[in-house]
Structures are given as structure tokens and as C-alpha cells.
Write the C-alpha cells for this entry.
Amino acid sequence: MLTCRQAEPCVPESTELLSLTDPADEAAWRAEVEKGLKGAGWGKLTAKTADGLPIAPLYREPDIATATDVSGVPGAAPFMRGASMPDAVTPWAIRQLFDHPDPARANQDILADLQGGVSSIELRTHHHGGARGVRIERAADLDYVLADVLLDAAPVSLDAGAQGLWMAELLATKLRGASGAGVAFNLDPIGVLMNTGAFSSGDLAKAATFALKLRDEMPAATALRVDARPVHEAGGTEAQETAAALAVGVAYMRALIGAGLSASEASKTLLFTLSVGPDILVETSKLRALRLCWARVSEAFGAAAPARLHAQTSRRMLTRYDSYSNILRTTTAAFAAAIGGAEAITTLPFTDALGLPTPFARRVARNTQHILLEESHAGHVADPAGGSWFVEKLTRDLAEKAWTLFQEIEAKGGIVHSMDWLAGAVHEARAAKFKKIATRREAITGISDFPLLGAALPAFETIIEKQPGPATSFTPIRWSEQFERLRDAMEARTPRPAVFFANLGALAEFSTRAIWTANLFAAGGVGAIGADAAYDSFDASIAAFKQSGAHVALIAGTDAAYIEHAESAAKALKGAGAMWVVMAGKPGEREAALRAAGVDQFVFAGQDAIAELETLHAALK
């Protein structure tokens, strides 16, 4: 109890509630939780990652006490806590992506972003048959793109696909005499295989030869990129992405050692690039798990070099509709990359799913990282998630799962020979996730849940030419695309098709089902007429339906109202001209009678929302 007197601070009369002398009794706490579960069992509180790894509601020290490895310290094996101690000024490089086709515009974007605080350039050239990417056809084009750029202060990271070796040699010539600190040439023949389906062992040998040459001419640069993004962007799980990175890394290590580099030199010339999604602690654990696993691989090769990590915010999580919400998604992903110990982070513009970014979108992308650096101080502590029993346990669980998959890949002959097997596993994971999204067990804010119809899209630059990239086993997807396809179909119609809500009873009685259904319909681009309208009588509801001009109607109410009025309501709506009648809720044992009365469709939680919305679309034609 607090006693307060005027002009005096509030002080407790008793310190009984402040006593910390009684130790916590976990068994008693668990017993109380189980009472609240009412017999459902502790397992009800346990979630699972995309790999099936359990996420328990409570973690304690014994969960990691039996671990055979130790976390170590930043900069020391097994490097789980970071490749090095973070720099107090620049704990990571802000690596902005530049991919405008016009070299002049690309240069303009680069200079503007460098002035705005970007510290590294991710230069994507035109390749893969797509429309994005700077068109560089000769050395003069590269000179033009990088004109007035201080390359020692703003190192370049290449993404040139099948043109990788040619672009790398072009850039190496331009940088001749430089140490190459922070420069990433990113030759990636296995990444080309994932993106295009084409692979040549000769390309891998040439990449290794380039790395050998680079060792003497530019020892501080990295030559090859281990790119796990194709697995992630195709719908892969965290363990699949990590395992793919390990397998690609091993393939490159063998090629590099075969070309004449030592194991230590080979490991140091690799850059690992992963996509990072919005689930902060899962993604943090993924980056830590990759470093842990690669330390084991590096040790097996006789080296002791950590994995150098570049993280890019996920493309598959981005949406076209309600795309301002992407700012929050990229912020959480960038935060995960930061506390996970990435040495370079690329934050994609929030309009990336729509087209090329405006200067505003680019500014938001880079300032997201500035806020994490300068205001949130996310880089001031090494491995801030370390020591958390949950993160430590998930890191090890994920590492073990990824290691098992990696061993399977190696047993099948390595990453190149097991590509079809890996693609099959990724397809299974993708289908499972799409199913969860379709049934709305996993939400996409602004798309499957809480959509806002009629909202204007943010400004973006239309892609100059739109050529689809080649279809491969790792063709990228976006989780929102199923619902967006439905939205597109309705957005193209004027006026927007809408469903009339024939609500039964008072607002408090029908609102729960009506609001839920209106959101479901909006996820498919379908409008709602009178979702919150209460009528004095059903005759008034029928009159409003006739006046609305709609030819599809929804009945929403309580179970009790359905028993008394649903059949007569359906008959009345059909008699008033409704061509299709939907009821919000499960039909139960009365389905046959309700259908006989005129109900054509039932919508309720747990259904395949995509299928139900497709059915509704057909009725609205």
C-alpha cells in the first residue's frame, strides 16, 4: 500500500511486496499454468519453426547446460558470438543496393546515398534476363557508374550473375593498386546455377583462379560469394538456407584449395550472403548457427577463419499492397541482422515489390539502418542476444538441423549433384507455408489480415522493361502473392465488386462475424456494403439489399439467430434477386437445409481462404 502526502514523495508503508527472499518455484508455476490450460497440456504452448524445431514457452539454464560446445567470445572460435568485436564507430557496413538500368541514374543514386550515409555499394548489373540491374557493357560504363565515388571509402560489392568473372576483372582493373578492404567481387557459379539452371565446372575453376590472383594483388578483398538467398527467396526454411550455404562454401573451399590457396586463405576470401526475415530471434539464431557450423567446417579444412556475413532483408516477405508496412518488416529484419552479427547489411526499399525505388524510398531504406546504429545503438554490444537460454537453445537446435541437411547434401555428391533434392525439399517447405497463409493460420498484415481497400500505392518507378527471369528450381516467390493475385483481379474492375451484408439482430450480436468476414472479403479485393449496419426488421434489410445494386449477399449473426432466421433470410434474399448467398459461420448439421433454402457458400476460420475467395470471385462475375 502506498501513502501519499502533499509535497512529499509516495513511499510504501510496507515492504512485504518488495521482498525477493522467496525463491521462484518453477514446479508451482507450471502447475498454475496447466490449470489455466484446462487439461490441454503443456504442448499447447509450444510453437514450431518452419523446420519443425520447437519453441517452448519457457527456457531455463538446463536447456543449454548439456551443450558440448561453448559460445566463446566474439572474434574467437567457434565465432558464434561474432567474427570479431564490433567497431565502436561502424559496427557494420550500410550496403545499399543499386540496380537502376540507366548508368547515369545509378551514379546519381550512388552519390546521393553516399552523401546520406551509405558506406558500401552493392552493384547489381543487368543479368538473369530480368529488367533490374545496371547496364554495363564496357569499362567506360563502369567508370561512369562509379564517377566521383571515393572507392577506398565506399567499397563495391558486385552482383553480376553469369557475367561475374568479366565484371570482376573489370572492377579489379579499376581498383589496381588498392588493398581491396571491404571489396567483394562475389563470383558465384553455383548461385548462377540456382538462378538460371546453367552451370559449368570450368566457371568454378576460373573463379578459383581469379581468387588466387586476387590473393597477391588485393589480399583484403573477397573473391567468391556463398549466396544462400536463392534458397530463402524460393521459400526455404532457416535450416535449408544454412545447409545450402555450408554446402556451397565447402564446394568453393575445395576449388580454392585445389587452385593453390591455403585453407585459411580460401576461407578468408569467401563472403556469405543470407536473406533475413522479420522473425527477429529466429533470424538472429540463424546467423549465429551459420557461424557455429562454418567454424566446424573451417576446422575440418585446417583453417580457423570465421564466416564473413552479409545480410539482405528478405524479398519474399515484401508486399505490393499496403507496402508502407514493409518499412516495419525491413526494420525488424535489419535489427535481426545487426544483433545477429552481420558485418554488412542491405535494407531493401519498401517499394521493392512494386518496382524501382524513388529517392524517398532509398532514403527510408538507409535511414532505417542509421536509426539502428545511431539511436538504438544496436551495434554497441557484441552478440546482445547471447546468453538468452532461448536464443542459445534455438541456435544449437538450428545448427544441428542444418548440419544434418548439410550431411545429406554431401552424401549425395555435394551441392551441384544434389540440387534437385534440395529444390524438392524447398518446394515442400514452400507449399506448407503457403497453406498456412491460405488458411490464415499465419497472417500477412495488410494482405491476408487487416487489408485496406482503395488505399493509394506509394510512388515508385516502373521497371523499364519487364522480362521474366528463367524458371528454375529456385524461382523466387513472395508470401503475399496468392492474395495479391485476387486483389489484382478486383482492382481491375470499376466499380469494385462488393457484397451486401444482411446482418441479423443488433450490432453487438453480429459484429464479430461481420467484421471478420468483411476483412476476409477485403483480402480478396472484395468490398463490403453495410458490414456494420443493423436493421429494425428483415424487411428493411431486404429493401436495403435491393437498393444497393449488389447481387451477392452475406448473412451474419449469432448461432441462435441462424437457427431462427437463417433459412428464411436466405429464401428472402434469393427472392429479392440475390444470385449468390454466403453465410458467415460453420453450417453444422443444418447444412443441407440451409443450402436448400438458398445458401450457396459458408465462410469460417480455418478454411482455405484462397479457395473460398476464388469461389466468391466467380459468383461476382
